[in-house]
Amino acid sequence: MNAGVNAGVNAGVNAGVNAGVNAEVGAVDGGPAPVVVASGVRMGYGGVQVLNGVDFTVASGEVSCVIGPSGSGKSTFLRCLNGLEPVLGGSLRVLGEEVGHTLRDGRYHPWTPKEFAAFRRNIGMVFQRFNLFAHQSALENVACGPVHVLGTPQDRARTLAMEHLDRVGLADHAHKRPHQLSGGQQQRVAIARALAMNPALMLFDEPTSALDPELVDEVLEVMKGLAAEGMTMVVVTHEIAFAREVGDRLTFFADGVVVERGRPRELLTAPEHERTRAFLSSVLGSQEGSSTK
Amino acid sequence: MRTEPIADGSGTPIPVARTWHWGRWLAAAVALAVAGWLAYLVVVNPRLDWGKVAEYLFNERILSGVWVTIEISVLATALGLVLGVLVAVMRLAHNPVLSGLASFYIWFFRGTPVLVQLIFWYNLAFLFPELVLKIPFTMIGLKWDTNQVMTGFTSAMLGLGLNLAAYFAETVRAGIQAVDRGQTEAAYALGMTPAKRMRVIVLPQALRIIIPPTGNEFISMLKTTSLVYVVAGHDLMTNASQIYKANNRIMELLIVASVWYMLMTAVATFLQGRLERRFGSDAVRLVRGGGAAARILPKVAG
After folding, report:
1. Touching check for A132 and chain B: CB below 8 Å?
2. For a Cys-Cys bond, which of A20, A51, A114, B54 suits A43, CB 3.0-4.6 Å?
């Protein structure tokens, strides 16, 4: 990946974020370039096809929620977005680049680990199981990326990390190690860690699925704050209420394809496909009393 | 065991009878008798001169031998640990040549006796009379006489260190594999390269996991150094053997050497205990959720 392409991408994305946070969803023509464009993305391993041609777009500043039964490929697709899983077919463009390949001299050249690393700097990811660095304090976790990846000086990175921790309400816990924090606190540190890299896109892989029910809201609140600031987000989740309230776009995955896409309220109240209806009725049935508003 | 009286229906306490474990007392008495008898045979043996043991315990050559044993143990362990980490990382490399070479190294050094390796390094001069380090195709460089470099001390350090590296590499590999896969993914997601992920995230955790077994390696190394006497490394065992070859007080000097080995082991065990208290709970925490590798680790590292 050459510097020119990189700079162009960043400029484009930043301009997009600043220009039209609440730009009309799907208004690609004339508006900012979409952050994610997937067409016919296929992926599989060991003879099992996980993604069977996924079409998916995310506009700049959009909060795109993804739901679907387990094994539908939604998490795998999310991991394709930052190259943690390889795309085997179709085309996946993220932040203006074909993930995993660079076009040069009329051919696509596979990325080196270094090029993958440079690409991922602009994409934050939050995992289901937090994955905080176990040997580092909360503060060190947040400062880790800037120090070791961006080369920010140690004291400057710590000051910034403190600001990010403060933002997720954990300034008082800066010097605790992950095992001394609750699940909800760990996940908020993980969000702060991703934000410390100033990403142009944030990926959330079922961020509240490993949490005790009473800890879910503190994480969702942080995510709502991010959405309000215009962060481009792709959120794989089971929190239907969050998708309805915060999401600009809702996508239903099943069997490795996108079954249905639409505005959350419309899709949730009047799903077009039988498959979506069946899934929603089973999920909403269990979440009815607790989280629907 | 309950000793407090049990109250019956009317509230009168009824005492509990004491149980006499006759079998236990008998077994203990027999074992004590046998052990005492064996100790007595040695201690009061008229052919064993305890005066000589006391005389040689703080003999100058013995003390210098103790010091050399500690030096060789520390240096060989350090060499083994550094090289072991390197071999382990190579073993896990995607490059099949690197990983193949690491496997070969481990197989070779674990497959040959340490004794053979020690004698080999000591006699390296038979193969290479001179050791040359120079820039290829030039005359710029350094040259040493092999026999002057490969003293008993250096060949002991090299032989023991290279051998330990092979064993330690497997421990490190288990440690690396025990680190949760999610740590690697989080490191990649932050934009780290594989090498940086290994250095900044995985190795620091893997090393915490393997610190307790490292103490074992050192304790075992303290005693393995006694093999050094075949290359006359002037360690504790070499010096003790040279003394007994001169005065024929074999048993006395073996007792002197053993006392020192036991003392060194006791100190090392104490230090290891402290290391383990410091890092042990860390290891458990880091391994938790580490999947299959976490279950293999205790077997490899133990």
Report:
1. yes
2. A51
